Amino acid sequence: MSSATACQRICVLGSTGSIGVSTLDVIARHSDRFEVFALTGASRVDELAAQCLQWKPRFAAMPDAARAAALRECLKREGLRTEVLAGEGALDELAAHPEVDAVMAAIVGAAGLSSCLAAARAGKRLLLANKEALVVGGAFFMDAVKAGGATLLPIDSEHSAIFQCLPEDRAAWPARIAHIVLTASGGPFRTRDPATLHAVTPDEACAHPNWVMGRKISVDSATMMNKALEVIEARWLFDLEPERIRVVLHPQSIIHSMVVCRDNSVLAQLGTPDMRVPIAYGLSFPERIASGASQLDFTALAALSFEPADFVRYPGLELSWAALRAAPGSTAVLNAANEEAVAAFLAGTIAFDRIHSVNAGTVERVLPSPDAVRSLPGLLDLDACSRREAQRLIRSFAS
C-alpha cells in the first residue's frame, strides 16, 4: 500500500487531550491521506461527541460505562451511526482492529499501556505520545513491538528530534551514536529560588513558558520529571545505556534534541515549539507533510542558550538514571509514584516540593520482583502496589 496514495485509517487514543486535538488538526489538513476510524476519550463526553460529529468515525470508546452511555445517547440524538464501545478492553480492541493502519497513542500515564501493547502486538504503525508505555513496560513492551512487527514512531518532540537525526536503518544507529542530548526548557521555575518552591500553586506550575500541554504533563515539566521519564523512554527507544543519555537546559525550545556522533559532529532538529511537527512526521513517515506549525524565523531569534541541568532545583531528574540502574521494574515504580504525587499536588493535598519526596520514597520502599516485568498483569500489579505506597506517603505529608 503506497503511503503517497492510500488513505490511512487512524485510531486516536486520547483524542480529547492536547496531543489528540493536535493530531486531528494535522489530519484535517490532509483529508485525502487520512481517515479517522476511531476516537477514544476518558471523561470529556461533550468534547468527544463534538469530535465524533465532525469526523464521523466508525467507532468511539470511553473506559467508563456511564460516560459511554451518555456519549451513545448524544450521538443517537444527532443521528450519527458511530458505534460507541465501553470499558478498558474496548481501547485494546480498537488499537488492534484489523482495519486500523495507524494508532496515535495519546493517553496520559500508565493507563495507556494495555492499548499500546495491543497495537504493538497487532503490528500497527504506532505513534507513541504515551511515554509511560515504555517507562512502565520497558523491555517487555519493546519485545511486543518486535514480535508484532509494529512500526514504532516517537511523538514526544525530543525523541522525534533524535529519530529525525538518525538514518532509517536502525542497525546503523549503534555505530553512529556517541550519545544523545535531550533538551529541556526548564519549565516555569528555571530562575526561581528553589527555597520558594514549597509555595508554588498548581496554576503557577501549569503555566509553561513555551508549550501548551495538559495539567499533568505541565507539572511534570515544572519538576523536570517529564524529562526524567524521557530519559527512560530514550533508553528503550534507541537501545542506549543510561550514561549515553544526557540532558541540557535550552530555554528557547528551538533545538528539540541532538545526536552527538562518534566523530563528535552534532546533529540537531530545530523548529518552533509546536507538537504538530512531530505528529505530522509520525503520520507521514518517511515522507513529510504540512503540519500547520509556524516556520522558524532565524532573523527573529535573539539567541540560543544552554545551561546545565540543576539537580538541586530539579532533584527528580536524577531519579531517572537511578531507576534505570536499579532492579528491572523500578522505572514503573517511579512512574506510578509520580502520577499519584502530581494528582495529589493538583488536588491541593501536598506541596509542590513534596512531589519529589513521594517519588524518591516510593522507589526506595518498593522492590519489584523479577516476575513483575514479564507480563502485563505483573506490571499492573506492580503499578498498583507502587500507587498504594505513594498514597501512604502522601497521607503522611498531608497530615
Explain briefly what this protein structure is:
The protein is 45% helix and 15% strand.
Give a verbal description of the structure.
- There is one protein chain.
- With 399 residues, the protein is of the alpha/beta class.
- 45% of the residues lie in helices and 15% in strands.
- It has 16 helices and 12 strands.
- The strands form 2 sheets. A 7-stranded parallel beta sheet has the order 4-3-2-1-5-6-7, with helices on both faces. The chain has a 5-stranded mixed beta sheet with strand order 11-10-8-9-12.
- Helix 5 links the parallel strand 5 and strand 6.
- The protein is globular and about 55 Å long.
End-to-end C-alpha gap? 60 Å
E-strand count: 12
pLDDT below 50 for ≥5 consecutive residues: which ranges? none
Instruction: Provide mean pLDDT, rounded.
Output: 93
- Strand content of the residues, in percent? 15-25%
The share of residues in helices is 40-55%
The secondary structure category is alpha/beta
The count of helical stretches stands at 16
Overall shape: it is globular
Please describe the biggest sheet, giving its number of strands, its sense, and whether it closes into a barrel.
7 strands, parallel
